[in-house]
Amino acid sequence: MGPTDAVAGAPWKSIETLPRNAGDDGTRVDHLVVLGLVPDGARVLDIGCGDGSLLALLRDRRSVDGRGIELSRAGVNACLARGLPVIQGDADTDLANYPDNAFDVVVLSQTIQATRNPRIVLDHLLRIGKQVIISFPNFGHWRVRAELAFRGRMPVTEIMPEAWYETPNIHHCTIRDFVGLCRTVGAEIEKATALDGRGRPMRYSMPWWFWNLVGAQGVFLLRSGGTDHE
Amino acid sequence: MDSTLTSDAEAGLRSEARPLPQGYEAMPATDPKSPVALFGADEPLAMDSGAALAPFQIAYQTAGTLNAERSNAVLICHALTGDQHFAHRHPVTGKAGWWETLVGPGKPIDTDRYFVVCSNVIGSCMGSTGPASVDPATAKPYGLDFPLVTIRDMVRAQAMLLDRLGIPDLFLCIGGSMGGMQVLQWASLFPERVFAAMPIATGARHSAQNIAFHEVGRQAIMADPAWADGRYFEEGTRPAKGLGVARMGAHITYLSEPALHRKFGRRLQNRAAPTFSFNADFQIESYLRHQGLSFVERFDANAYLYLTRAMDYFDLAEDHGGVLANAFRASKTRFCVIAFTSDWLFPTADSRAIVHALNAVAAPVAFVEVESDKGHDAFLLDEPALFSAARGFVDAAARARGL
User: Fold this and answer.
1) C-alpha angle A60/A66/A70, rounded to 5°?
2) Which of A26, A83, B159, B391 sits between 20 and 30 A of B26, alpha carbons compared?
């Protein structure tokens, strides 16, 4: 069952906030958020895994069997040096060959807005992973809205640093838009939260519409909604 | 570049009835200048053609030392016209080992840490039994009486060699092109004997285009009257012209258009203007003639027929019900697949097909597409991105194996 109303209140659980000292050791806070969602020993596929720092964190702290897909050769080489099995490829072309339920958890971090076909990508994620962790920049953030409303310009922010003519992000969405896509593809939202500008989960006492306004990123833990998706 | 060209490159390839080189027995086929493992009549090689090859021999080279646990063995599989001299001066050409860029002390495949073995494939002509070897039944060279060889036959023979050397399983199996085919065959045929596999610039099957190129090369050899239906040793001839033309054609496929343009362009060879003749006016012509000439000095024409055929027959998916993933279903091997952007003989799509099959069985696989304009031969050349990928993969695999 998907959410009944994305704005008035969320029927799913929020992702827990992190302790105040989280990330003090140099670990990326958004990686710690993912770490909190991945069970020990899970089989994990990280799509757009960069230099493999998240996979290495999950391997070292959760003993996961991790795999990765990364577009850049520099990233793949860094992963190879860490002993991580990572293939050079991308989410649009390299997901179709993975069998159903090949992984316990599939992670797509800050990438879905850069895919050519986010809906097909999300379908594949839900097919090959029992659970899906997905994060994306929230185009409903107040600064984005302000840029458009008051300056009439496409926004350039910390999390979306490129100008419109240079950005790889071709399919921006708001948190609310994403909830709508989840409903369309029959994904069940298990947990969700918004991250602030520093990548920390926001206090979950906040109402849902507030997240869509002040959250810099949305983070969702999904699973396939069962029969309506199969 | 020009200084390496011999003057007879200018004269083109002649196919005169040159005398046998100082006694047939002195050829690399029978005198490989490397260790040889002999397998007697009681140890036949069971071949895909149905033939049982016995007796036979495998010529090989090693570098490094096998550790007490016998866990640090690396098998290098050579390409079509390669040989066992991967880190050793070549007995015919005098050149350095063909993979000293990648293998040696302190190199990504570190001979101070690993025991590295490379054997001449069965069917070749550098000391392992092949069509240039003497058929014990007739006391003459096999010629075309030699049974057709497959990639799997080569791998079975290598496995027999490893048994002989007391190597239970491989830490790493690595090779490019036809060597990469052997790596894939190894991982499929003996999954429990391969800890890590690195197929480079290769494919799980030979494409129609590649079969076509090979057929042109074979026809060039067979069209040479000196080939004499493969009986040129007895006839006292050598099909140098046919083999040279085959090599010239094949060599083009190992390069790339940008690499040819960069190295040769339309530049003329030691002359200011075209000669209005069919002399080698262009540097690229002179270069190819030189490639053809130098190749016939070191390679047997019949072996070229057999090994090209082995590659043509290779189709790992076909051997597994048409589904490549089935070839790796039992695999616990960790893979690192490498392709080169300008390789049009084994384009990146061929490597991706391997990767996708491995993904389908959830095998641990890394894949790197190296940016290079050097074409298929990039795997043999100084290609830092290849070395860094190999070093990362091999070092991590060594840690995982406790080496």
Assistant:
1) 115
2) B159
B367 closest CB neighbour out of A82, A89, A99:
A89
Pairing of strands A187-195, A13-14: parallel
CA dihedral B12, B17, B19, B23 (to 10 degrees): 110
Q: Which residues of B touch A94 (CB under 8 A)?
A: 356, 359
Q: Is A154 strand, coil or helix?
A: coil
CA–CA dist A159, A220 (Å, integer)? 17
How many Cβ atoms from other residues are within 10 Å of residue A143's Cβ?
A: 16
Strand, helix or coil at B356?
helix
Contact between residue B302 and residue B309 where contact means Cβ atoms under 8 Å apart: no
Cα-flanking dihedrals φ and ψ of residue B394, to 5°? -70, -40
Q: Which domains does chain A have, with CATH numbers?
A: 28-224 (3.40.50.150)
Q: Which residue has the tokens 């409303």?
A: A149
Is A161 an 8 Å CB contact of chain B?
Answer: no
Q: How much is the pLDDT for A203? A: 67
For B:334-363, CB contacts with A below 8 A are 334-337, 352, 355-357, 359-360, 362
Residue B323 carries which side chain, given as an amino acid letter?
Answer: V
CA–CA distance from B100 to each of A112, B76, B273 (Å)?
44, 12, 40
Domain that holds residue B90: 2-401
Which one of the listed residues B110, B312, B319, B343 is annotated catalytic?
B343
Partnered with residue B292 across adjacent β-strands are none
**Region B135-149 average pLDDT:** 95
8 A C-beta contact, residue A41 and residue A63: yes
| CATH number of the domain enclosing B391 | 3.40.50.1820
CA B233/CA B132 separation, integer angstroms: 9
Q: What total of structural domains would you count in chain B?
A: 1
Report pTM: 0.89
Reported ipTM exceeds the 0.85 cut? no
Q: How far apart are CA B215 and CA B206, in angstroms?
A: 12
Burial bucket for residue A73 (CB in 10 Å: 0-12, 13-18, 19+) = middle
Quickly tell me which residue has 């770490």 as its tokens: A35
**Residue in B355, B359, B400 closest to A83 by CB:** B400
B263 touches chain A (CB under 8 A): no
In the DSSP assignment, the letter for residue A202 is: P
